[in-house]
Design a protein that fits this description.
CATH architecture of one domain in chain B: Orthogonal Bundle
Strand order of the largest sheet of chain B: 1-2
Strand order of the largest sheet of chain A: 1-4
Strand content of chain B: under 5%
Oligomer: heterodimer
Strand content of chain A: 5-15%
CATH topology of one domain in chain B: MetI-like fold
Number of strands of chain B: 2
Order of helices and strands of chain B: HEEHHHHHHHHHHHH
CATH class of one domain in chain B: Mainly Alpha
Number of helices of chain B: 13
Number of strands of chain A: 4
Radius of gyration of chain A: 28 Å
CATH architecture of the largest domain in chain A: Orthogonal Bundle
Number of domains of chain A: 3
Structural class of chain A: mainly alpha
Largest sheet of chain A: 2 strands, antiparallel
Largest interface: A-B, 95 and 98 residues
Shape of chain B: globular
CATH superfamily of the largest domain in chain A: MetI-like
CATH superfamily of one domain in chain B: MetI-like
CATH topology of the largest domain in chain A: MetI-like fold
Chain lengths: 384, 299
Amino acid sequence: MKLQLWEKTATYTMLVIGSIVFLIPFLWLLATSFKTPNEVAESARLNIPGVFYKQAKPELSFKFTFPADSTKITPATKKVLLTMAENLRLQGRDIILVEVVSPDDSIYSDFLSRDLRNRRRDALKRVVVREGLINENRSLLSYDKNLAPNEFVVREAKNIFFNYIASLRLVPLVRFFGNTLLIILYALLGTVFSSAICAYAFARFKVPGSGVLFAILLATMMLPGVVTLIPIFILFEKIGWINTFKPLIVPAYFGGGAFNIFLLRQFFLTLPKDIEDAASIDGAGWLGILFRIVIPLSKPALITVAIFTFMYLMNEFMTPLIYLHDVEKFNIAVGLNLFRSQYVDRVPWGPLMAASTLMILPMILVFFFAQRYFIKGIALTGMK
Amino acid sequence: MDRKKKHLLHFYLLAAPALLGLLLFALGPIVASLAISFTDWDILSKPAFLGLKNYQELLFHDKLFLKSLWNSLYYTIFGVPLGVVGGLLIAMLLNTKVRGIPIYRTLFYLPAVVPAVASAVLWIWVFDPDLGILNESLRFIGFSTTPKWLASTEWAMPALIIMSLWGLGAGMIIYLAGLQGIPEHLYEAAKIDGAGRWHLFWHVTVPHMSPIIFFNLIMGIIWSLQGGFTQAYIMTEGGPANSTLFYTYYIFRKAFEEFQMGYSSALAWVLFVIILVITALVFKYARKKVYYEYLGGGS
């Protein structure tokens, strides 16, 4: 269809406006991940240049002296520390993360934020001293050798990725990403493998009753997950799998989901049977045909299944929430919520947005990398 | 062994994990869930048989049951049609042949790849009454009073529906694949007959897209009736005043915060029946309007 000029103009206008509307939340997220607490609390604007203006501020540091009699970080020293930080904040400075290494090598760090519920200046006085999150990484701290043994310098974070660094300190984010990777890797393997062999069974071996079985399998796609949730939870509870990764991994090895089986079966049906027959004449066994011929030929479909599964697993929230109880077992979905549950009335928005960006980043990368497979794969499902 | 027996063996060997999974994680749990719904059970002690008491309690005495059911219906009634129509319209927009279309497609689809938790966190911030970009924009356009969104009982649910539309891309991409399957000559022929745009849309596009619209509608209803949990858990905790207490969230609370496995199973089964009834009604009334000729194989 040839488009007329006014139609073209209208189309472009809608495309551009739509893109902006869809994109703004992303830009907003990205911008907030580079904002200091004061900037977050003061303005809703998308001022990404805020990053640069922040950079232009002179570097700030203050010296912290431990009491002579103590080298441990005690509540008293924390109080002194936070008072100093608070004074600097009253002078209009923005401090994201205060960290201090005590002479006994433990590190104390805390997040300082203006209380967003009470946005007046004096809200600053309500900084709460919290037990420090101990972390071995001390890159934020400038360690000056010229100081006395009990003196330390606390510096304002000047790195433009301050929120990203702070997010790693405030919750064990690296651990959460590691857990997520581990779960996804095993679950992905299970899903792709078991849905492929099952799809092949339904595509190639017509046996009595296979049609009915396939229909039942497809019908489970429409089964509401909440109905099966409780019995499955009880099952895993009884065999002691709560607070392990197993409930998130093992079910993937049992079929890998009706949708994936359906998608792969459709694909297998399009493969010419001649190739398999030829291989059979050449002496290949039925498993040899599946693993050496069918599976290598089905790469686009298998990758599509892998991408769908990856997105599904990253999206899942209730399942990990139910099964993972210890903070060290959390995956990123549950861990992200820790920013809010742990810092109830002073949510560290900057670091939280930084962590969210880190969570979205692999999704976008995978999407771009796999886009051509993805769209091909959807066209293959036969839903046209 | 003859060919038939061999096939039988191969089939069951390959399909065994999936069939076992069907029993362990779908059919078995449905039956178990029904059985549990007749009991009072906190997992730790022995279940006590209650008969239909759980159902009596929730149908006649539990105000939160009705409230949460209404919330999920509200979310579905507004969210699903908006999603289905919006997805189709955007797919049509993205199916035009103008320059740069792959970039626009990517931009429109991108929100759909964002994990639910991350988008929930992001949208809390978008909806912030004072500092959020949404109200900032509304004020910029000239609104003097802006909704309190997640903090208000009337606006919290519309806010979550607006947010769900951000992820429209997931359905859109299926429509797009469908639109590309409509033979161009049909449009040409209709145009020669003097059909206008509106006519083309209603008499060529919609009939050909009807199986996909129908699929998205059914799956949308099923997902939406049990949806909203992640958003509500992270953004509102079901509040304010239970205005975003979705049905699934209510089940979650009963099961995993109060450990009333029997009662929550009864809740789940009621939802299951409601979903079955609604799906059956949609099948009955919408299926007639679905045009299958070009689906291939008459499926």
